[in-house]
Amino acid sequence: MAKERAPLTKIRIEKAKAPPDADQLMLWDTTVSGFGVRCLPGGSKTFVYRYRPHGGGRTVNPRLLKLGSFPSISLDDARAAARIHAGNVAKGKDPARQRAEERRRDRATLGKLLAEDGPYELHLKERGLVNIKTALSSLRRGLKAHMATDVAALSRNDIVTAIAELTKIGKRGAAADLRKFSRTFCEWTVEQGLAKFNPMAGLRAPSRTRHQRLQDAEDKGKALTDAELVAVWRAAQAVQDRAARGEPIAGTFAGLVQLALLTGMRRGELSQLQRERHVLTGERAIDNRGVDGERIHLPKTITKTTADHDIPLTPLMRAVIAAQPRGASPLLFPSRITGGALRGWTKLVAALKDASGVDVGLHDLRRTVRTLMSRLDVAEDIAELAIGHQRADLIARYNKDRAWQARVEAFEKVSAHVGALLAEAPDDRDNVIAIHGRDQRPTG
């Protein structure tokens, strides 16, 4: 690197040129110590101020602060800026660190980091996470009061208070999600240099009391009885019949409920299901992975386990799928209002409870399918594979058998059982009330 020291002038700067064999040419001013111009072989020239932090002496590496490009900034203005920085250094300040902190603060508010298509969402997408929407929704809602806060100033108390508020109003699942997702988010901010430490590090959830453990066991859902299964199915069928007659009610959600009772698919998987893309029949069902039947194919991009999962089609599943109206949306169960993915699950499920008279949650439908398989003498390992649970690590490493035919038989047993129940039970669909939800509300 070539260096030259002399009073800086506009003419001298204009004539300066880095030698061909040097990576840069530095012109240092003799008027203000540390003030100079860096000239690059490409022709660019930048005013700089070089200094050592106050009190560091020669044991500390010098720091270089850019002041602006010549001729966009004049020599006089650049020299004046250098004098100001020299005065601040003499007072013990560190201009480069202050500037870096200003830039960090400008991009480090929770609102910017958690914005749609913002830094954290892009990070999660790069990692290939499936539950990105859940994670971001949890953080945005739980920390809504802190969106203007610098992440470096976000305290453990801020997050714990938000978690406690969710617990207080009975949203323990949302509270647990916020605890989990905020810990991961804060760790990411440390890795990015946006915060010095993770305020959630080492924080454990308090031990559950005996009463709370018993309550948790009661709240962890259930499998429907045969009578409840029929009631839920009939309620869903009645709603679909009325939607087919043109009534503005949640017909697509009702269809989703029926397919869930036959497949055990998760809510997120069902809501992303596309007829033409994921329901494989005819020649499209030919596969070289040991799967040789018509099926619903769930790619790893939409499954919770981030692994491909296939569900063999039964006649009853085909009937449910065929009953869904075709429209502009590629989704099998789109929102009637937007054509996009269903939303407003809480209201939709509450309406399903009212319509069927059954205290049911969407994940209870998955539990019901899994329980039916056990009741119908399906082997445990086959039942687990059938509903998309992953094998234990060591078993998965060595056992690559997809047990496809056994899974076909498992779902055929479930569909046959449901079909028999429906054939035997009386049908009083006309007495079922309608299901409405946020995206499936009446229009008048």
In short:
The chain has 19 helices and eight strands.
Notes on the protein architecture:
- By secondary structure, this protein is an alpha+beta fold.
- It has three domains: 2-98, 2-Layer Sandwich (Double Stranded RNA Binding Domain), CATH 3.30.160.390; 110-206, DNA polymerase, domain 1 (Orthogonal Bundle), CATH 1.10.150; 226-431, hpI Integrase, Chain A.
- It is 48% helix and 9% strand.
- The strands form two sheets. A five-stranded mixed β-sheet has the order 1-2-3-4-5, with helices on one face. Strands 6-7-8 form a three-stranded antiparallel β-sheet.
- The longest helix is centred in the C-terminal third of the chain and has 21 residues, at 404-424.
- The radius of gyration is 32 Å and the shape is elongated.
At CATH level 3, the topology of the largest domain is hpI Integrase, Chain A
Q: What's the name of the CATH homologous superfamily of the largest domain?
A: Intergrase catalytic core
Spatial strand sequence of the major β-sheet: 1-2-3-4-5
Number of helical segments with 4 or more residues: 19
Task: Report the structural category.
Answer: alpha+beta
CATH class of the largest domain equals: Mainly Alpha
CATH architecture of the largest domain: Orthogonal Bundle
Average pLDDT figure: 85
How many distinct folded domains?
A: 3
**How helical, in percent, are the residues?**
40-55%
Low-confidence stretches: 438-444
Share of β-strand residues: 5-15%
